[in-house]
Amino acid sequence: MTPVLEPKFDRSPPEPAFLLGGGACADLIATKNWAATPLGAIETWPHCLRSAVALLLRSRVPIVMLWGAEGVMLYNDAYSGFAGGRHPELLGSNVREGWPEVAAFNDHVMNVCLAGDTLHYHDQELTLHRHGSPEQVWMDLDYSPVLDEDGAPAGVFCILAETTERVAADRRTMFLLALSDELRPLTTPADIIRLTADRLGDWLNASRVFYAEIANGMMTVERDFCRGVDSIVGEHSLEAFGPDLLAAYNVGTPVVVPG
Question: What is the pTM of this model?
């Protein structure tokens, strides 16, 4: 007897219309249990919330919306890239808990914008833990209130642009120009080495910076910059720093020696 195959049906609920075409974050929003958040089940979301989410999901610039007094986070694919390793757990979290390292900053944003005002920050520096460790980040941030059906602020809309690479490049350029100006009047190698080591140490927040003369497998350090470590002024065998340093010197490549 030939078995009768029953047709297979997709019993998962259809994606709400306002999420269609909204990318990967829209798919995550569609499947998340929002009943466990202050927003409640997605079927109960007011029209103003749905419209704002539909708008941000379709934008190609990073946008995050913080809804309600808790600042429940809803964002698009571009913002998920900015969030790094904090995505996707960040989606649906309360902003003060989602970004605990900048809770005070976001608390100020929520208080100001839910009172009906706007905020703008240019090259705002924050330290974020996007990939498990502290990271300096610079951003342009524009915050504005999102109104409910009665015209009262119900959420906060944030459009951001990360400017970290530009700010870092500008600061490097300014540092090199300033260093060049300071070096110009110096005439002896010893003075040039001293000043350069000091400025590089401060700029890099390094423990030690030094220049050395190398001959016959020996390294001579006449002056070094030190912060929290002992000076190594004197003569040293390259072999004492391990075979990697000697091999790198012979071929002219950089090497990292654990301190």
Answer: 0.78
In a domain, 258, yes or no: no
Calculate the alpha carbon distances from 61 to 158, 185, 245 in Å: 11, 48, 45
**Dihedral sign from CA coordinates of 238, 242, 248, 251:** positive
Residue-wise pLDDT for 150-177, tens only, equals 999 999 999 999 999 999 999 999 999 9
Distance CA 250, CA 46 (A): 69
Domain that holds residue 246: 186-251
Residue 146 belongs to some domain of the structure: yes
Average pLDDT (203-222) is: 86
Half-sphere exposure of 13 (CA within 13 A, CB side): 12
DSSP state of 93: S
Element (H, E) at 64: strand 63-67
What is the arithmetic mean of pLDDT over 88-117?
98
Of 102 and 210, the structure prediction assigns the larger pLDDT to: 102
Q: How high is the pLDDT of residue 236? A: 87
Give the Cβ contact number of residue 19 at 10 Å.
19
Q: Which one-letter amino acid corresponds to residue 246?
A: L
Token code pair at residue 227: 């912060």
Assigned domain for 39 exists: yes
Q: How far apart are alpha carbons 166 and 138 in whole angstroms?
A: 9
Backbone angles phi, psi at 186, to 5 degrees: -75, 145
Helix, strand, coil percentages in the chain from 3-state DSSP, rounded to 5: 40, 25, 35
Across-strand partners of 94? 72
192 in the same domain as 161 = no
What tokens were used for 212?
Answer: 């050395």
Tally of structural domains, the chain: 2
In terms of DSSP bridges, do strands 135-147 and 63-67 run parallel, antiparallel, or are they unpaired? unpaired
